[in-house]
Write a structure and sequence with these properties.
This protein has 8 domains: 4-72, Immunoglobulins (Immunoglobulin-like, Sandwich); 81-159, Sandwich (Immunoglobulin-like); 166-246, Immunoglobulins (Immunoglobulin-like, Sandwich); 253-333, Immunoglobulin-like (Sandwich); 340-420, Immunoglobulin-like (Sandwich); 427-507, Immunoglobulins (Immunoglobulin-like), CATH 2.60.40.10; 514-594, Immunoglobulin-like (Sandwich); 601-703, Immunoglobulins (Immunoglobulin-like). The protein is built from no helices and 56 strands. Strands 3-2-5-6 form a 4-stranded antiparallel β-sheet, with no helix packed on it. A 4-stranded antiparallel β-sheet has the order 10-9-11-12, with no helix packed on it.
Length: 715
């Protein structure tokens, strides 16, 4: 507050001393030192001083340029700190300014775990946003004019006012005590003062808890409890809150029920010891909690349900119509009603579940009477469902169900459940008389009494159901070559209860192939083709006989090349569409075709004249064939046929070269083999011998005799 140390670094050079000029109390002052620090005393608090420091050479006359050090002295501490205007959220700290220059003030405190600093130029400040019933320490510091130099701190400690307690309540009320509870006010820890009057005496209780048990009270009496929060200094009080409550009345005595019917009963009791009270009655009616009140010691309760055990809770009510005594229970049964909504489920060939809705009211058991194998039978259950076993299939049973009250003696009227047991499954199912669009389905009846039958299947993408009283049914309207799954089940006499289904899977018959044809015929093979029949996917069986052996070929295509055949032979190919089960066959279609004959061999011409010649050859390998002969005569195409291996061709012109195309013809007179060509000249002069080489005319009257031809024709 009155001094400070000034320090500096020595200038570069030899040893120097230092001078210091400043103004103190309006007087210019100079200090000299040989050190680089000096303590300046005799200053005033919270004042800004400017010190001019300069180096002095060894002659104590030559001085360097001065450097200025500006600094404030420390302010003094504030005095007479106090707190006033205390509320639950604010406190007004005040103090007296310290002696010295003008200062401002820093007020530091912690709120909600956060350090807070307030700055003021005044000697009072209102601090808000505080928590109730909390002790705060406000640290007040004077701050010099540079806003950096601080005086010593002074602490002002004060509690904020506690808030009033909230949610006051009375609980655990007995005939002689009440438990008072409340929610602590927001803020710091508090204790509580509870003030009340009992038996004409004022009483104060102190507790650190938010609940207190007040004892020694009178039954069915109204009390007012004044609750006040007390801050940690045991002096600062919050606003009071009053809890008003009655003590509990005593219980009623000697309760009983009388005049009990199916829907009502009288309840009676004796009054408890104590002041005048009324009475409440709690019970459940139709699933709803019900409360009745009376000023009498009896009440008639109506609107009850039959066969229900009712528990009536009777209690005395104090003058506030809220505080009640311990209840006393009167328990009684009404008469049971009939069960509701009976039905049978999970029906099998030998058992079924019987279920029903409980009659209106609680706690009943159930009896069940029926006849089984000619014997009267009774079953008992506490459930609303029972599984009855040991029954016969496809039989109608009548079950008489009745409710039994909780005393196991009182029974309601019976309700009848009539149901069939499930038929057994049909046996030995099969399909017969299968066509392209229909089939017969047959089966053996299950064991049991007369049943009818149902049939489920999908037809043209639609679910279809058929019924019959027979063990066979014709199913029409099907598509060819399609696999159908038919689910056959027996139906009991009620036309509702069905047995387990048995599946019959069968294909309809494929259609016959159409447009059969043979092509690409050779001497050893034929290509067979046809158009696929309408319907599902099929494969094809091609059956034929070759070399005395039956042959079967299978293909998924509509054409097949059959090889290894004999030439000039008639074959009958039987084509059959086969359904996807490789068992169901369509009608057969026959393709008849000849293989191509082989060519004739060793052809030659003989007996050649000017107008005719014989043509001969050797028959091809194979069965009997006929032969065709194509040639051109007089510019006209001519065709001759013969069944022989020689033919005489007349009507020719002399000395002409003819080309004869000879071919074998199969037995169908259509299939022909490859042709073989015989080329020969007719004779020029009928007396000329046969020659092997061409002859030349030397002159019109002379010629050279040709030699005999080994081929037998003239050239």
């Amino acid at each position: 507050m009155t001094s400070m140390n000034l320090c500096w670094g020595a200038p570069v050079g030899l040893n120097v001393s230092y001078g210091l000029n400043f103004s103190r109390n309006g007087q210019s002052t100079q200090l000299v030192t040989s050190n680089t620090c000096i303590n300046v005393t005799g200053l005033n608090s919270s004042i800004s001083y400017s010190f001019f420091v300069f180096a002095v050479a060894g002659d104590n006359m030559t001085i360097g340029d001065s450097v200025t050090i500006t600094a404030f002295t420390k302010p003094g501490a504030v005095t007479s700190p106090s707190a006033s205007n205390v509320t639950t959220t604010s406190i007004r700290p005040c103090w007296v300014a310290p002696v010295g220059g003008n200062v401002s003030y820093s007020v530091n405190f912690s709120s909600n775990g956060q350090s807070t600093q307030l700055i003021t130029n005044n000697t009072c400040i209102n601090v808000t946003g505080l928590n109730s019933a909390t002790s705060y320490s406000f640290i007040v510091i004077a701050v010099a004019g540079n806003n950096m130099t601080l005086g010593d701190s002074v602490t002002i400690t004060a509690f904020t006012k506690p808030g009033a307690v909230t949610s006051p309540s009375a609980s655990n009320v007995t005939t002689t005590s009440i438990r008072l509870c409340w929610v602590a006010p927001v803020g710091g820890n508090v204790s509580y003062s509870v003030n009340f009057s009992s038996n004409g005496q004022s009483t104060q209780l102190i507790t650190n808890n938010t609940c207190i048990n007040v004892t020694g009270l009178n039954s069915a009496t109204s009390y007012s409890f004044i609750v006040i929060a007390v801050a940690g200094n045991n002096m600062t009080l919050g606003d009071s809150v009053t809890i008003t409550a009655f003590t509990k009345p005593g219980p009623v005595t000697s309760p009983y029920a009388s005049n009990v019917t199916m829907t009502s009963m009288n309840l009676c009791w004796g009054a408890p010891v104590g002041l005048n009270v009324s009475y409440g009655l709690n019970f459940s009616r139709n699933g709803q909690s019900t409360q009745l009140f009376t000023s009498n010691t009896y009440i008639n309760v109506t609107g009850l349900n039959s066969s229900i055990s009712y528990s009536f809770f009777v209690f005395a009510v104090a003058g506030d119509n809220m505080t009640v005594g311990d209840s006393v229970t009167i328990t009684a049964f009404t008469k049971p009603g009939p069960v509701t909504s009976p039905y049978a489920s999970n029906v099998t060939m030998t058992s079924m579940n019987l279920c029903w809705g409980a009659p209106v009211g609680l706690n009943v058991s159930y009896g069940l009477n029926f006849s089984r194998n000619g014997q009267s039978t009774q079953l008992v259950t506490s459930n609303t469902c029972i599984n009855v076993t040991g029954l016969n299939s496809s039989i109608s049973y009548s079950f008489f169900v009745f409710a039994v009250a909780g005393d196991n003696m009182t029974v309601g009227d019976s309700v009848t459940i009539t149901a069939f047991t499930k038929p057994g499954p049909v046996t030995s199912p099969y399909a017969s008389n299968v066509t392209m669009t229909s089939m017969n389905l047959c089966w053996v009846a299950p064991v049991g009494l007369n049943v009818s039958y149902g049939l489920n299947f999908s037809r043209n993408g639609q679910s279809t159901q058929l019924f019959t009283s027979n063990t066979c049914i014709n199913v029409p309207g099907l598509n060819s070559s399609i696999s159908y799954s038919f689910f056959v089940f027996a139906v009991a006499g009620d036309n509702k209860t069905v047995g387990d289904s048995v599946t019959i899977t069968a294909f309809t018959k494929p259609g016959a192939v159409t447009s059969p044809s043979a092509s690409n015929v050779t001497t050893t093979s034929i290509r067979l083709c046809w158009v696929v029949p309408v319907g599902g996917n099929v494969s094809y069986s091609v059956n034929f006989s070759s070399n005395g052996q039956s042959t079967r070929l299978i293909t998924n295509n509509t054409c097949i090349n059959v090889t290894g055949l004999n030439s000039a032979t008639s074959y009958s190919f039987i084509v059959i569409a086969v359904a996807g089960n490789n068992m169901t066959l369509g009608d057969s279609v026959t393709i008849t075709a000849f293989t191509k004959p082989g060519p004739v061999t060793s052809p030659y011409a003989s007996n050649v004249t000017m107008t005719s010649m014989n043509l001969c050859w050797v028959a091809p390998v194979g069965l009997n064939v006929s032969y065709g002969l194509n040639f051109s005569r007089n510019g006209q195409s001519t065709q001759l046929f013969t069944s022989n291996t020689c033919i005489n061709v007349p009507g020719l012109n002399s000395s002409i070269s003819y080309s004869f195309f000879v071919f074998a013809v199969a037995g169908d007179n259509k299939t022909v083999g490859d042709s073989v060509t015989i080329t020969a000249f007719t004779s020029f002069y009928s007396s000329l011998p046969l020659v092997s080489n061409p002859w030349k005319l030397n002159s019109p009257s002379s010629f050279q005799q040709p030699q005999e031809s080994i081929c037998g024709y003239y050239s």
